[in-house]
Design a protein that fits this description.
about 110 residues, mainly beta
Length: about 110
Amino acid sequence: MLCTMPELQTVLLGKDSNAWAVYIDAARSWCLHNNQHVNRMDGGIAAGCTVGILLDLDQRHLSFFVNDEPQAPIPAFQNLPEGLVFFPAVSINRNVQITLRPCLEPPSLSSSPE
């Protein structure tokens, strides 16, 4: 998830125009921005999964991954606003544990073998 204002702690991420989010449960995922649900996909998340967020400020694209596989079309969001400061944000339910590991090598966006 990504937001432009750190004080968004009281707003559900993706409900307004200041945040872009992917919601993932055990069975499915969907993207949310400005209260618009898009890119709903089957397939969820389980213990031990790695969730990745790839922010490309040159192209103004945002993509989401689970275990290096796209969790929405690439990019999930495009034409992000220019000139803003973006903040990573994580929202979890109670009784959930996560480990944040920044700076992992991004997955390849190419479909051709290396």
